[in-house]
Every structure is written in structure tokens, then in C-alpha cells.
Amino acid sequence: MKSALVAASGGATGVHKNSVIIDDDKLLICCCNTIFCLNLPNLELAWKIKADSATCFEIFEYRDSYIVHGELEITRINKSGEILWQKIGADIFTTPEGTDTFEITDEYILATDWENRKYKFDFNGNLIK
To answer: What is the pLDDT of residues 76-105, one digit of tens each?
Structure first.
């Protein structure tokens, strides 16, 4: 059995079902403001990217890329760990209640900020009015 230690600086990331994903032979982990991609099964670092200025809450696979729900940014990165686009809101992308703040549908990404403002983005990062 292999093991790996992952560490970064920035805001704290909670461990939950959407803070880690397995994509074929890759393990992707939200840790502070960084996404780490480890090769499976050897757990060697494939790449890492700062995906948010503060902290990464969740990561989701979307087609040939990943969508990261961060505290300050919504980020789309490709499978090589390069940022395709990043979007900010007027406030942090969470609510005082901390529930139902982020959703990915077949047609758009919906994020809610601290003041309960809703942001609907297409998958190219454009704000949908």
C-alpha cells in the first residue's frame, strides 16, 4: 500500500464527497487553494494548480475537464492542470447557511454568493443573464 502527504497554504478545505475525485488512473484532491493530481496507483504527483485565491471547496469532472468551486473563484481546468477560465463574484461563493450554494447542470453552472446572489455560467465561463 502506498501513501502520500499533500499540503498547501491558504484557507482550510473540509474533507467530504466532493473534495476528492478519482478519474481513471488519477486522484484529484482539493487542499487549501490548490488542486493536486496524483497518478494511481503509485501516488506520484502528476501536477498541481492554484485554483482559487483562498480555498477550493469542491471539484467535479465535466467532460474533458474539471470544474472547481472555490471560495473566491469558479475555475475550469483541463486534464493537464491548466486553467481554462476563472470567474469571480461580488462576494464569496458560499452562503451563511453553507448549503445548496453550487450546482452543475447539463446546461450551466449555478453558484450562490454570501448575499444570496445567483451566478449562472455557461461552460465557457460566460455569465448567462
So the answer is: 999 999 999 999 999 999 999 988 799 999
User: Grid coordinates representing 107?
Assistant: 446546461
CATH class in words for 20-121: mainly beta
The string over 79-107, giving b where at least 16 C-beta atoms fall within 10 Å of a residue's C-beta and e elsewhere, is bebeeeebbebeebbbbeeeeebbebeee
Domain positions in the chain: 20-121
pTM of the model: 0.93
* Residue in this structure with the C-alpha cell 501513501, named with its chain if needed: 3
* DSSP symbol at 40: T
**Contact in structure between 50 and 72 (CB atoms under 8 Å):** no
Reading the block at residue 10, the C-alpha cell is: 491558504
Residue-level pLDDT at 23: 97
Instruction: Give the strand order in the sheet containing 118-121.
Output: 102-104, 109-112, 118-121
